[in-house]
């Protein structure tokens, strides 16, 4: 089993509660572990830094899956509006932000 090393969670109690509730909601829609791991990473980075700019290659290393699996997971997360692409770094890495209100927003803008 691969061990994923990451920085400690420097979240406040309120931020941790938001992330915990959000993870439960995500798991009701996203069934693949790679998608859940990516969503949680983007969510954590959004709470701490306002955005997340981890490359697909790095997600592959962290999750232990191939690039195609990562691309499919990111595509699914974007289709469900769980994460939103907000730009690109100078190095060409996509910048994402978690949408913590994704379940509360009406589908296709229709109330």
Discrete helix count: 4
Mind telling me the CATH class? Mainly Alpha
Mean pLDDT: 84
For the record, the CATH architecture stands as Orthogonal Bundle
Shape annotation: globular
In the CATH hierarchy, the third-tier topology is known as Arc Repressor Mutant, subunit A
What is the percent of helical residues?
40-55%
Estimate the strand proportion. 5-15%
Going by CATH, what is the homologous superfamily? Winged helix-like DNA-binding domain superfamily/Winged helix DNA-binding domain
What composes the largest sheet?
Answer: 2 strands, antiparallel
**Order of adjacent strands in the largest pleated sheet:** 1-2
Number of strands: 2
SSE run: HHHHEE
Domain module count: 1
Unreliably modeled segments: none
- Radius of gyration from CA coordinates: 14 Å
End-to-end distance: 45 Å
Structural class: mainly alpha
Explain this structure to me?
The protein has 111 residues and is mainly alpha-helical. It has one domain (13-100): Winged helix-like DNA-binding domain superfamily/Winged helix DNA-binding domain (Arc Repressor Mutant, subunit A), CATH 1.10.10.10. The protein has 4 helices and 2 strands; from the N terminus they run H-H-H-H-E-E. The chain has helices at residues 13-27, 33-49, 56-63, 67-79; strands at 83-88, 94-98. A two-stranded antiparallel ribbon has the order 1-2. Helix 2 (33-49) crosses helix 4 (67-79). It is globular and about 30 Å long. The N and C termini lie far apart (45 Å). The mean pLDDT is 84. It comes from Falsochrobactrum shanghaiense.
């Amino acid at each position: 089993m691969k061990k994923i090393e990451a920085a400690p969670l420097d979240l406040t109690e309120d931020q941790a509660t938001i992330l915990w509730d959000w993870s439960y909601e995500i798991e009701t829609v996203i069934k693949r572990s790679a998608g859940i791991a990516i969503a949680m990473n983007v969510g954590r980075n959004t709470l701490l830094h306002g955005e997340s700019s981890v490359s697909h290659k790095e997600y592959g290393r962290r999750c232990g899956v191939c690039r195609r699996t990562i691309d499919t997971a990111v595509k699914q997360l974007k289709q469900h509006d769980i994460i939103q692409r907000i730009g690109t770094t100078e190095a060409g890495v996509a910048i994402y932000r978690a949408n913590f209100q994704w379940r509360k927003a009406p589908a296709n803008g229709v109330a």
